[in-house]
Write a structure and sequence with these properties.
With 186 residues, this protein is α/β, with parallel strands linked by helices. It is built from five helices and eight strands. The structure holds ligand FNR. This is NAD(P)H-dependent FMN reductase. It comes from Filomicrobium insigne.
């Protein structure tokens, strides 16, 4: 079975460092996985009044993409010490329908990157907490935080080998976990 992974970037910015890193992962593991990068541009603001079946298009696309993936990689920037509203909003949609969300029990790896020395670590901690609330199967290993990211990309790809190797080790853990049978969330 060829693993199918989904990358979700918490940044809508065209030249987003986080999205570039997801594209770098895709390139490195292209020989052994299918890796799609999902853009959150079409996901509307969460409104429980609109959270009815059948799901509205932007939401259905997100939920279907997660459901079809064996594992998910979520990249987050840090905005004011937290995750961007865009990402939290998407995770709120993805956490529903309650008790039946595609993210429940789904293996998920997270990382953050930022031009700052702190690398978005606070946002990543917050992201992990949200995923615990949802009941995702969080890959717990030394967490990848990429600081001074603007100096580590070249031609739209993560060129810093230490960061890339560390991140790919996490992705390999995700692939291993994705091959395990689904467990019920705690
Ligand atoms: C930021 N940035 C930022 N960086 C950081 O490390 N900690 C922070 O708290 C913040 N806060 C923040 C707020 C807002 C509103 C913006 C727009 C930016 C800088 C941020 O890391 C930088 O813009 C990244 O380039 C954003 O990620 P992408 O778009 O490159 O993936």
């Amino acid at each position: 079975h060829r693993p199918k992974l989904l990358g979700i970037s918490g940044s809508l910015r065209r030249d987003s460092f986080n999205t570039q890193i997801l594209e770098s992962i895709k390139q490195v593991i292209a020989d052994r996985t299918d890796f799609d990068v999902f853009r959150l541009n079409e996901v509307p603001l969460y409104n429980q009044d609109l959270d009815v079946a059948p799901a509205i298009p932007g939401v259905a696309a997100l939920r279907d993409a997660i459901a079809e993936a064996d594992g998910v990689v979520i990249a987050t920037p840090e905005f004011n010490y937290g995750i961007p509203g865009v990402l939290k909003n998407a995770l709120d949609w993805a956490s529903r329908p309650y008790g039946k969300a595609a993210l429940i029990g789904k293996p998920v790896l997270t990382f953050s990157s930022s031009p700052a020395f702190t690398g978005g670590v606070r946002a990543q901690a917050q992201l992990n907490e949200t995923l615990l609330a949802i009941g995702a199967r969080l890959i717990v290993r030394p967490q990848t935080v990429i600081a001074e990211v603007h100096n580590k990309l070249q031609n739209g790809r993560l060129a810093d080998t230490a960061s890339l190797d560390f991140l790919i080790a996490g992705v390999n853990d995700l692939i291993t976990e994705s091959a395990q049978p689904a467990r019920k969330a705690a």
